[in-house]
Each structure stands twice: as C-alpha cells, then as structure tokens.
Amino acid sequence: MPELPEVETVARRIEKEITGKTIVSADVRWARTVAFPALKTFKEQIKNQKIKSVSRRAKYLILTLENYNLLIHLKMSGDLTVRKGKMRIEKHDRLILDLKSPGGGSAYLAFNDTRKFGKVWLTNQPETILGKLGPEPLEKTFTPQWLYENLQKRKRQIKPLLLDQTFLAGVGNIYADEALHKAKIHPQALTNSISQKQAEALYEAIVSTLKEGIRRNGASIDWVYRGGEYQNYFRVYDREGEPCMVCGATIKKIVVAQRGSHFCPTCQRLKGSKHGT
After folding, report:
1. Both 13 and 121 in a single domain?
2. How wide is the angle at C-alpha 29 spanned by C-alphas 9 and 172, nearest 5°?
3. Structure pTM?
4. Which of 11, 24, 92, 181 could connect to 98 by a Cys-Cys bridge, CB 3.0–4.6 Å?
5. CA 166, CA 202: separation in Å to the nearest integer?
6. Catalytic residues
C-alpha cells in the first residue's frame, strides 16, 4: 500500500500538471470507487470545477476545487497519472477526469486501481473524513514530548500503534519497520515501557525515515507503485535472512497484529522474548 512518502510523491508529481485546470467531466468506470456522494450527484457537482491546489493529508490526496474537496485514497494498488492528448483508457482505470487548461489544451487525470479498493470523496466538509486522523509526523504538532506522553497513555505493542492512523497519520508497514530499527525498538515492545529517551529516538527515526523516503520518491517494491528508489536503502523491511547493516545479525520476520514485521534481534532486543534475545 502506498504510504506517506509514496502519496506525497504522487501529489508532487501531478500538482504542476493539473493545478489551474478545469474538470470538464468525470468518467466513472467502477462505481464503487466513488464513496461519496451518490454517483449522479458526484458527476454533476464535479463538472466545471477548477483545481486550485493539490496536497496530502496522511495517505489521502486532496484536490482543492472551487467549491469542493476531492479526496482520494489509493488504498492497496491505486495510482494517479496525467495523460495528455487523445484519451486512452487502460485496463484498470476506475475514474478518469477530463481536464481543460485555461489555454484550451486538454489532459486527463486517471485513477488506475488494479484491486479496486481505492476510494474518492467529493465534499465541502473534508473533516468528516479526515477529522479522526492523528497528527502529521512531518508537522509541528508531532513532537518528541507528544510521542512520549501518548505512548505512556497506552499499553499496546508499538508496531500496530504506529500503523493506527488515528494515532499517527501516514505511517505504514514499511516505514514503521524502518523507523523502529533505526530507533532500536522491538516491534512488540509495549508502548508504556518505552522510555523518554527511546521515544525521542523513535521520533527522530520516524521523521528522518519519512523524509528520506520522500527524497527518494518512495519505495517501488511490486507492480503497483513504480518510480521510487527507497527500496534500495531498506534497513530491515523485506530483508528477512539477510545481515543487519548495523551489527551483522540475521534479520528476522514475525507477524505482529497480522502484519509482517522485520527486525534485527540484536539491535532491537525485547526482554523475555524468544524473538529478541
């Protein structure tokens, strides 16, 4: 699933190409892609809306229109591409927006989604969808002290908490594994057992890992998302059986809250655990 760096990369990639253009019409090729409003209303409301800006909140792309916000969640396999010239429909296109520039040129914004899980919302109240999200890890609301205090309030394993979008917005499986390794924290460590010093290290690890992911245009690890190179710099993710770049120990993979989790049993020790001793 595209995570914060991948979604940020998509936003930056399409921003210059579609900002200022007007949506002439919407071709919805998979009705369930539109989560809100009803399909007929969606087509009517989005027509002739000018795209004012493109941004991101957590794993959501936000197209700010004249009267609405178009929210897009790529889910497992979604991607957005801008195509110019004559419209060409590809096999897994679920939504195509016909765009017109002020100078009269045409282009198309295509939402391609192989697994059909991606969703879009057209609303003038974006907080109804985004309001439950936690803080952005690259903004000032996320601080070492905030992280420490909120870890102490809970008694959960750290890895699934980092994946909880109501706790912290945008972090997914890849970047959680990478940040935990950098901070030397086991993915099964209980949050209320994490010291202030460890929380500070985790804060730095989360921020630096996400920034590095963005700098390298995200990670390309399968056929869904292409163009990134962060996969060439993974510390532990997808490196089961390979040596740790820090200590040389063999990277292990366990299942934590139904998610595969990669870690170094030497760098990320968990007292009393057969995985971390």
Report:
1. yes
2. 30
3. 0.92
4. 24
5. 18
6. 2-3, 59, 259
